[in-house]
Amino acid sequence: MADYNKINANDSLLKQTDQESTPQSKTISVKKRINDKSASFLSNESPSSTPDIPMRESSVEEKMQLADELSNGKKEYDQLIKKLENDLIISLESFAIESEAQSKAEEMICGIANEFSMRVLGEVITGVYIKCYHNQKAIAGICYSLERYDSQEVYPWGQSIVLGLVNHKSEIVKERVISLIENWGDISLVLALKNMDISSTWMEKYVNNVITYLERKNNVLCEKAV
């Protein structure tokens, strides 16, 4: 498994921050990059009564240099996402739900969230979801690993993935999706559960129990809001 502590994110659009219990966003937006770069060409506001120096228009050369820097940063970011996707796909090949030990895939998913951000994790997992949609082991591994986060941490990409999996052809994937929704306790996904195509009696009972749980939770929240 790759050591992501050795990835130099300072030369890309990523910025490291202190570790917290819930990963915080460490991604510097392109807009901020533009603002920071443009600030070097502009005069700072004067604290005295002296009139401000008029802001000048950036030269063609300066604009081209900024465009090149942004383009290079975007390429580095895209390359990082692609590498993380490929590494996660490899890790998911050895995923086994029956194993009690933390899988390599789960370990890597936690590593991405801790070293970069939930936004980066969302891009990586969404990419893997698209590439491996018909691979039940990979998809089940993703759902299982996402159970360690709450619904707000993975919003909105986590919910989008779940909505795309409720009628997956694999019963194993459906079971993991139901478990994931139950774990999140996300009442916004009740309708998705009601629209699941269930063929087995035991799974129908399972999904109905989760629906009941979520609806009761919603009723309690509504009563508290009154």
Output the keywords.
2 domains, 226 residues, mainly alpha
What is the N-to-C order of secondary-structure elements (H for helix, E for strand)?
HHHHHHHHH
Please state the overall shape, judged from the principal axes of the Cα atoms.
Answer: globular
Low-confidence stretches: 4-48
Alpha plus pi helix count: 9
Mean pLDDT score, rounded?
A: 78
What's the total number of strands? 0
Instruction: Give the DSSP E fraction (strand runs of 2 or more residues).
Output: under 5%
End-to-end distance, in Å? 51 Å
Largest sheet composition? none
Summed up, the domain count is 2
How would you classify the helix and strand content by structural class? mainly alpha
Proportion in helices: 55-70%
The radius of gyration is 23 Å
Provide a quick synopsis of the model:
This protein is mostly helical and 226 residues long.
Descriptive notes:
The structure is a single chain. The protein has helices at 30-39, 60-92, 104-115, 118-131, 136-146, 157-163, 171-184, 190-194, 201-225. The chain has 2 domains: 1-27 and 72-149, no CATH class; 168-226, no CATH class. It is built from 9 helices and no strands. 58% of the residues lie in helices and 0% in strands. Helix 2 (60-92) runs antiparallel to helix 3 (104-115), helix 3 packs antiparallel against helix 4 and helix 5 (136-146) runs parallel beside helix 7 (171-184). Residues 4-48 have low confidence and may be disordered. With 226 residues, it is mostly helical.
